[in-house]
Design a protein that fits this description.
heterodimer, A: mainly alpha, about 80% helix, B: about 650 residues, alpha+beta, 6 domains, 6-stranded mixed beta sheet, 5-stranded antiparallel beta sheet, about 35% helix
Chain lengths: ~160, ~650
């Protein structure tokens, strides 16, 4: 062995690309405009993995997310937007994970078990949140007081600021 | 943080309030759509705040490269070091460019006087006229009178576009011109074909050890927040903001997904791993260059699941991994264990494994802890004690015991020397009976007397001798020690007495301290026990470590000690790369005391850059000067074996 290839690991890269393509399809299904934006984002994620650039993956995920949101803004079905957002976050997570793992351990190192656990954990969190959120939405469409929604949103904002993420 | 705590508390309070409103416990009825818009604006402002604060930290712990060998410099790795060897010490103030041109004219003088047979005065004149080289740039650079002819406009325009400054071009061409003379000088090599690159070579910055500290039990040395999820909150806020402004529930929900991850990131901490490490070598006492399989077994001894464990084994700095990977990324259930294995190629010496690095992260990867986990393993590869294919080139000076050295004196031996008239008491078996039968005269046969040599093998293991033609190729010490083992075996087999000594740092970490007590010294002797001692010293004496020392030591004191202990009849075989003035001074000092001396010099120079070529020329000049002083120097090129080098020296005839 000459040197370690410090590049994104395979399994997570494949996972990230799949998730990005899924997000692209969902954004495209929601709206044409969003789909076009999403193409740029997904391509940037792919290139980021290829170039070993975290910056590119970050921006790619941001653009992809924006593409998904555009679909939501033009009144696309709520479920498409939620799933799209989920796919984007998963793609970004796996991409970053592949990158960091590659930088620390290299591409040749056996990491399948670690990556498997990580993919499952990431999906579980996303699916759980999306289910809760979507469930609340379905439950809440029956004319809940607007005041409650405002309070909920404010609560979320303060919580996020509190988490400093 | 206070603000974060307050805002979390407010968030929780509002959340509770919202639940109460939803459950119709309290009434909070606003119908204004403007209010929702205002909330959206707040969310966007918070997101902007988050994005601008973002980027502050996402850290990836960099990992070292324990699978690589510790690197050593290539002679002439900087231009100034290569040029300084030709400058006379002066305390005057000089600018950098002045120093370079001074050094280069010193080098030109040195090669012209030695290899072109010029006197100093002739050389100076040639430098002044520029007749010493065909390269007009080089000639002009070293001469105060000459200018390069004005070039045609087209070339000058091309020169402007060329990124290399003209000064660099001059230096390169001058160095190449000097190298042409310096290489041809000993009649062995043609001149280099192309002008080398000016810039020093870039070698990767390799950290070959996991830690230099002594670690006896698993120790945590870092606990960091990776900032892995930085930005996901701001992304969520953006979505919520836009969603609220546009009253699009899907977009708000997209933001909520992000909130889930932000919470996930905050919930968990990296577990404390109770990890045990076990390392098994397929062979603990391999021959040099044998392949050894290392199997590492990692067990989780805590009662908790370790979702993310990254392990780098502490491969010794003197060994490099040749097959497989010395790393693993996995997750471990309680009581679970995994193993991985890789192959290293054994190198001569004693190699202790460094502690492994274990990194653990939590499920969300937001907290990372780094540990050193030790497991004591040692690999010892003793140098092969195989005699040389040819006899050792020694000087004709010797002690009075029979041995390998064939002298010019007549006496007892194997090789016919002469016949002389019979004297009384000549032994019967030396009388030429054939002649007696023919003519009745008595005559005595004489043979070349063979005597035992007393030889001290002295190895130059100073910091400045840790050099190699490529940074991770076998360096001069590796090769010297190998040669020393074989030379010693050859001599011992032939009945000579052999000793071993070295110059250079003893301690790897704190080498500035002079440590005469632990300096390698084994007085010339013979016998089985002595042979074992010699082999043990070559394998494991710290001075011969394959790992380069961190600092130089006061080797002059060591040399004085060696000289004091050296018997007057002992001759010295000195193994040195001959790449600095110190090695030449050592030779001269030993020679001044009247010790017969042979220098064997492993060649570590390269010629890829200007400064490397100058370093090579410098070494040739040193060799030439020693040979001119009557000291035999055996050059040992990097791609030859010691047998080939010595056979070539024999073929050329000893001086």
């Amino acid at each position: 062995m000459e040197t370690l290839t410090r590049e994104p690991t395979r399994i997570s890269s494949i996972g990230a690309t799949t998730a990005a393509l899924l997000a692209l399809v969902l954004a495209g299904a929601a709206s044409i405009e969003g789909g076009i934006i999403a193409v740029v984002g997904a391509a940037l994620i792919g290139l980021g993995l290829f170039w070993d650039s975290g910056r590119a993956i970050d921006f790619g995920a941001g653009i992809l997310f924006f593409g998904v949101i555009v679909g939501g803004l033009v009144e696309a079905p709520v479920i498409l937007t939620v799933l799209g957002a989920l796919a984007v976050v998963v793609a970004w997570d796996l991409g970053t994970s592949a990158l960091e793992l590659g930088r620390q351990l290299g591409r040749e190192t056996p990491t399948a078990r670690l990556e498997g656990v990580h993919i499952v954990a990431s999906l579980l969190v996303g699916v759980a949140t999306a289910t809760v959120g979507y469930g609340a939405y379905l439950f809440g469409t029956g004319g809940q007081p607007a005041g409650a929604i405002i309070l909920l949103l404010l609560a979320v904002i303060f919580l996020i600021v509190g988490l400093r993420r | 943080m206070n603000t974060t705590r307050i805002s979390s508390a407010v968030g929780l309070f509002l959340f509770g309030l919202a639940v109460l409103v939803l459950a119709d416990v309290i009434a909070f009825d606003v119908t204004s759509a403007y209010l929702i818009g205002a909330v959206g604006v707040i969310a966007l402002l918070a997101a902007v705040n988050g994005f601008t604060r973002r980027r502050e930290e996402r850290t990836v712990t960099e990992t070292p490269d324990p699978e690589r060998r510790a690197t050593v410099p290539v002679p002439g790795h900087t231009l100034s070091s290569a040029i300084n060897q030709f400058r006379r010490d002066s305390y005057e103030f000089t600018t950098g460019s002045q120093r370079i041109s001074e050094g280069l004219s010193g080098a030109a003088m040195a090669v012209l006087t030695r290899f072109e047979g010029l006197s100093k005065r002739e050389a100076r004149t040639q430098l002044k006229d520029g007749t010493w080289t065909e390269d007009e740039y080089a000639a002009a650079f070293l001469s105060p009178d000459l200018e390069v002819e004005e070039k045609p406009l087209r070339d000058r325009l091309a020169g402007v576009l060329d990124l290399e400054t003209s000064f660099r071009q001059y230096v390169r061409r001058t160095a190449a011109a000097i190298a042409t003379i310096g290489y041809g000088g000993l009649g062995e090599r043609r001149a280099p074909e192309e002008i080398p690159q000016y810039d020093p070579e870039d070698f990767e910055n390799i950290e070959p050890r996991t830690t230099t500290k002594a670690v006896t039990e698993p120790t945590e040395y870092r606990n960091t927040q990776t900032g892995y999820w930085t930005g996901v909150g701001a992304l969520a806020l953006t979505a919520i903001g836009f969603g609220a402004l546009a009253e699009a529930p899907g977009v708000v929900l997209a933001g909520v997904v992000g909130v889930g991850y932000a919470g996930f990131a905050h919930l968990l901490e990296a577990p404390e791993p109770e990890i045990s490490l076990e390392r098994v070598l397929s062979e603990e006492d391999p021959e040099p260059d044998e392949e050894v399989t290392v199997t590492v077994r990692v067990s989780n001894e805590s009662g908790r699941l370790l979702p993310d464990v990254r392990i780098l084994d502490g491969v010794p700095p003197g060994l490099s991994v040749t097959d497989g990977v010395a790393r693993l990324g996995t997750s471990l259930r309680p009581g679970d264990s995994v193993q991985f294995s890789y192959t290293v190629t054994a190198r001569r010496g004693t190699h202790e494994f460094d502690p492994a690095i274990v990194l653990t992260r939590d499920f969300a990867q937001s907290n990372e802890r780094t540990f050193h986990v030790p497991a004591k393993t040692t690999l010892v590869a003793r140098p092969t004690l195989r005699p040389l294919a040819t006899s050792v080139p020694l000087q004709p000076a010797a002690a009075g015991f029979s041995g390998q050295l064939t002298t010019a004196d007549a006496g007892e031996g194997m090789q016919f020397h002469s016949v002389r008239e019979y004297r009384r008491n000549d032994p019967l078996n030396r009388i030429d009976w054939n002649r007696h039968a023919r003519s009745g005269e008595l005559a005595t046969l004489e043979f070349h007397e063979e005597r035992a040599a007393r030889v001290l093998i002295l190895i130059d293991a100073r910091k400045s001798a840790y050099l190699a033609p490529e940074p991770d190729a076998p360096h001069a010490i590796d090769r010297s020690v190998e040669a020393a083992g074989r030379i010693a075996t050859s001599l011992l087999d032939a009945g000579d007495t052999v000793g071993l000594a070295a110059l250079g740092p003893v301690d790897r970490q704190d080498s500035r301290r002079i440590n005469l007590k632990d300096t390698c010294w084994l007085g010339p002797s013979s016998g089985h026990h002595h042979r074992m001692q010699l082999s043990e010293l070559l394998a494991s004496h710290p001075q011969f470590s394959t790992e380069p020392p961190s600092a130089g030591t006061q080797w002059q004191a060591q040399l004085r000690m060696v000289r004091r202990r050296l018997g007057s009849e002992t001759q010295v075989v000195f193994l040195t790369p001959l790449c600095d003035g110190g090695s030449v001074r050592t030779v001269r000092r030993l020679n001044a005391r009247g010790h017969a001396l042979t220098v064997i010099t492993p060649d570590t120079t390269a010629e890829r850059t200007t400064s490397q070529q100058l370093a090579r020329v410098g070494r040739r000049i040193r060799r030439f000067d020693l040979q001119r002083a009557g000291i035999p120097v055996i050059d040992w090129p990097a791609d030859d074996t010691i047998d080939e080098a010595i056979a070539r020296a024999h073929a050329r005839g000893r001086r």
